[in-house]
Amino acid sequence: MFVNFALMINAAIFASGEGTNAENLFNYFANDPRIKIKLVVTNKDNAGVIARAENHKKNVQIISKAALENYTDKFIEFLKVEKIDLIILAGFLVKIPEAFIKAFPNKIINIHPSLLPNYGGKGMYGMNVHRAVIENKEIESGITIHFVNEEYDKGEVILQAKCIVESTDTPELLAKKIQSLEYEYLPKAIEKFL
Ligand code: GAR
Q1: Is the distance from the beta carbon of residue 15 to the nearest atom of ligand 1 less than 6 Å?
Q2: Of the residues 3, 6, 19, 95, which has the fewest C-beta atoms closer than 10 A?
Q3: Which residue, judged by its Cα, is nearest atom 8 of ligand 1?
Q4: Is residue 1 predicted with pLDDT exceeding 60?
Q5: Residue 153 CA, closest ligand 1 atom number
Q6: pLDDT of the residue at 146
Q7: Peptide bond preceding 97: is omega within 30 degrees of 0, i.e. cis?
Q8: pLDDT value for 4
């Protein structure tokens, strides 16, 4: 089979937590000649994503929030040397510095576990989002995959998918529904770039 490697894009996943979305992407794109997940970046040296990445033989870089903020240019340079074309934030809880966004215009995407602009902004991540949705007795929630710009959770939307919130749902049950949407739709959103 002829594979045109010139068309392969290199992606980096940034994650701060468990990394189940990252793992889903490793599996989904494992044999896809259009994309290589080359690198995993985390700001937490005890993040679950590290073991998941190592199991999939991914290069892992740990960079603290302070280092990301104080050595932004060096880190950008490192990613350029690695020829990273696409950055996927999958539960990365550090705000991306502006210089970084300028260096990768429309090449950084984020997954957020609500229907933005609802339940976005500072402090709105993971279970905090699901608790707020349940407390407000919303009848639907969902996920948003969007480009990252200078404003938190406000970049152009690439894709949204919804689920119903039942009156009996707990934040934990809602989290499960959101996770299945994320596992289904994040790979599909990435495929739009390939
Ligand atoms: C995901 O639900 C993602 O949407 C959320 O963090 C979780 C990471 O889970 N991101 C945010 O809340 C960003 N504001 P994972 O580590 O198991 O992939």
Answers
A1: yes
A2: 6
A3: 91
A4: no
A5: 14
A6: 97
A7: no
A8: 52
Closest atom of ligand 1 to 15 CA is 16
Band of residue 6 on the pLDDT scale cut at 50, 70, 90 = low
Residue nearest to atom 7 of ligand 1 (CA): 91
Q: With 0.90 as the threshold, say if the pTM is over it.
A: yes
Q: Residue 167: inside a domain, yes or no? A: no
Assess whether 112 carries a catalytic annotation. Answer: yes
Looking at the domain assignment, is residue 133 inside a domain? no
SS (H, E, C) 130-147: HHHHHHCCCCEEEEEEEE
Supply 82's token pair: 């690695």
Range of 45's domain?
Answer: 9-105
Measured in Å, residue 2 CA sits from the centre of ligand 1 at 37
For the segment 40-62, the average pLDDT, to the nearest whole number, is 98
User: How many angstroms from the chain centroid is the CA of residue 6?
Assistant: 25
Alpha carbons 146 and 159: distance in angstroms, whole number: 7
Position 144 in a domain: no
Check whether 172 has a pLDDT greater than 80. Answer: yes
Residue 171: inside a domain? no
From the CA of 74, how far away is ligand 1's center (Å)? 26
Question: Atom 17, ligand 1: which residue's CA is nearest?
Answer: 20
Q: Is the minimum distance from the CB of 90 to ligand 1 under 6 angstroms?
A: yes
176 C-alpha to center of ligand 1: Å?
Answer: 12
Predicted pLDDT of residue 45? 96
The domain spanning residue 41 has which CATH number? Answer: 3.40.50.170
Total domains present in the chain: 1
